[in-house]
Amino acid sequence: MSLSIEVPQQLSLPVDRRVQARRLTVILIALLAATSLLSLASGATGTSLWGALADLVAGRELSRLDRIVLFDIRLPRLCLGILVGASLAVSGAVMQGLFRNPLADPGIVGVSAGAGLAAISAIVLGALLPPVLRDQVGNYLVPVSAFFGGWGSTLILYRVSTRRGQTSVATMLLAGIALGALAGALSGILVYIADDNQLRDLTFWGMGSLAGATWTKVLAATPIVLAALAVTPFIARGLNGLALGEAAAGHIGIPVQTVKNTSILTVAAATGAAVAVSGGIGFIGIVVPHLLRLATSPDHHSLLPNAALLGASLLLAADLIARVIIAPAELPIGIVTAVLGAPVFLWILLKRHGAISL
Amino acid sequence: MQAFDIEVDFGNSRILHGVDFTAKPGEITAIVGPNGSGKTTLLRAMTGEIPHSGKVLLNEENVAGMKPWQLAAIRGVQPQTTNIAFPFTVFEIVRLGLSTVLSAAERDLPLRALEKVDLSGFGNRMYQDLSGGEQQRVQLARVLTQIWQPVIDGMPRWLILDEPVASLDIGHQFTVMDLTRDFAARGGGVVTVMHDLNLTAMFADKVVLMQRGQIAAQGSPKEVLTEANLALTYGCPLPVNTVPHDGTPFLLPQARPAQPI
Description:
The structure holds two protein chains of two kinds. Chain A contains 14 helices and two strands. Chain A is an all-alpha fold. In chain A, β1 and β2 form a beta hairpin. The longest helix of chain A has 36 residues, at 64-99. Chain B is 30% helix and 26% strand. Chain B starts with a strand and ends in a 10-residue tail after the last strand. Chain A binds chain B through residues 9-15, 17, 100-102, 164-165, 237, 240-241, 243-245, 247-248, 250-256, 293-294, 297-299, and chain B through 44, 47-50, 67-69, 71-73, 75-77, 79, 82-93, 96-97, 99-100, 110-111, 120-124, 142, 146.
């Protein structure tokens, strides 16, 4: 008997998902513009963005209240939301690329907790600095400390969980729990010794909120976040190569150590800046890159800029929900991102059932 | 490609004991030996993946002084297995073999490489969804994309493979071995770790037989794959015959009679 099996011909030319990703970038820019306008237009007071715009166009003077609401409350909050959302999403994407794992996220593996500890230390112990020095470093003390806290914890995490170029997910998650617990305990001690004024700062900061947005915070965070974002195009090819493993990445000509160091600094800078100005806001860093990988491709050339755009939009949307859902009071935004993000995280785990080998 | 006095330690135990290794361009050099004899360790030491002492030369240049991109331009390395955490397509993985500076002619290399490993039409498939053997061929296509021309500017390029046919069916074992032979015939150098001694005898120009971290024998397949050498290294009787028309050795292993335990 002769064998004859009809084999369907697969003659599809590869789809270049880079084109789809560029289209998505355009859509995400439009989305960010829309959420930004909505964010400026909404709030507890009756100030109307459209009314104010009409006034400006007609050359009329804005009322003092409108000016304060728009320019000193909503606009800095909008800018901070964009900076924080972009930072969280990009640091998640970079960290996942570095660890070759879609579950690595600064919030989950203790990097945010490390940055938080450093920020709390800066708030509480900063008071011990001589006044001259305090005036000099002033606004930058908290974000810069948070950066070093994030950097230190990422470095510890990477050292502990990587052996011969292979990162163990189990070790990474466990080390993250240990780091988070340690940072939490030390933060607790600092809160205990803080005075009343500092306590108010800490409570406000710890809730994870954009409510304390000021131009000072925006100005302090902007250079750090922009520096982190500016680096990302240069590590995109390296992170793609790292998907093959460190050794194979080296064999295709990638300077692995440089890419790793740059990635760790980028994560630390972006996470540190975000944590310093907004406290702990979770899940943006894990949900955004995951959605984008599903929508187009894991190619970091498009993933990183798209993550910045979608992260900013999502955070603005979450902030909007936080502001309006129990208006005139507002929810800490961390609660909103957790309520929306945690189920998505569980869904990712469910979809990968068994695919994560610890 | 030459290596001198390569020594590798894992913890307190020495895995490689001062190995000297030579491979010539235009030839397939196969490293064979039983499990744990140090084949893969030697390959990984020579490609700089693990800490080692000794010196490795590629086209007479010490690799220790070369930058990753300089090495990548003349040497492609295929690992045994590659797991990828993210949903990359086959085409995206193969494209990683391209350098950042592209000439127009280089742009179709990924497609041509996929055709060579018999995976045309697989470009849009998710790498993670492929079988182990298909993934192995995708990785080979990626390496071929990287060093498509076996000779560049008069310098040979090197194809370094770690058990390239380990999870392939017999048809594709020949596809891959033919590819390596073609690469060598056009002037490139091939160094490969092999388990299948018959394929080794058929395709290799030089065989390096390893045992306990040292080279037990090296030379042509006919010189190395002898019953005496194999019994000594593999610890079981392996009758060696020769193919009548060209004298290539071949093994037809026999099961030992069952013995009460």
